[in-house]
Amino acid sequence: MRTFDLSPLYRSTVGFDRLFSMMDGFDAAPGYPPYNIERTGENDYRVTVAVAGFGADELSIESKENTLTIKGGKQATPEQNGEVLYQGIAARAFERVFQLADYVQVKNAALENGLLHVDLVREIPEAKKPRQIPIGNVDAKAKPQVVENKVAA
Fold first, then answer.
1. Tens digit of each residue's pLDDT (9 = 90 or more) over 35-85
2. Which domains does the chain have, with CATH numbers?
3. Which of 33, 34, 47, 119 could form a disulfide with 107 if both were Cys (CB 3.0 to 4.6 A apart)?
4. ∠96-25-18 over CA atoms, to 5°?
5. Closest of 27, 37, 41, 24 to residue 68, by C-alpha
6. Separation of alpha carbons 69 and 61, rounded Å
7. pLDDT of residue 58
8. Distance between the two ends of the chain, CA-based, in angstroms?
């Protein structure tokens, strides 16, 4: 896979540094834990993260500005009675960050069958919603008046 050096573009652009930083970070995006993003309604979304082996007390969800951060970390467990021959269930710490659009809020979160469901809703304020402007007829009595034009002689 090719890697591109975007540093020459930094000095010739203004205001696009966040875009280039995001592009630089695409290769470093971790694949763990896997997740789904679903649209459950017109303004409703659900992020589902596979967190097998993690309990609710080992997970944290933080919503700050336009960022949703889900973190997980296993607590030290006492020695088990047997020897683990193969460990296919990942138990490593993780941090998954999602960029949220404007006016998207976290509604609730639930842990079910090893899947963490985070429900999101987009609540647009009334002042930002489009509104219809009625078109009325011009009343004959309320005609605009013409101001006399005085011509200098």
1. 999 999 988 999 999 998 899 999 999 999 889 999 999 876 666 677 878
2. 1-30 (no CATH), 31-76+87-126 (2.60.40.790)
3. 119
4. 100
5. 37
6. 6
7. 92
8. 83
Looking only at Cα atoms, what is the longest distance across the chain?
A: 113
CB atoms within 10 A of CB 1: 3
Cβ proximity of 48 and 36 under 8 Å: yes
Contact, 56 vs 71, CB < 8 A?
Answer: no
Q: Is the pLDDT of residue 118 over 90?
A: yes
Tokens of 150: 């005085």
Task: Write down the pTM of the prediction.
Answer: 0.64
- DSSP character at residue 85: S
In the structure encoding, which two tokens stand for residue 8, read together?
A: 């020459």
96 and 59 Cβ atoms separated by less than 8 Å: no
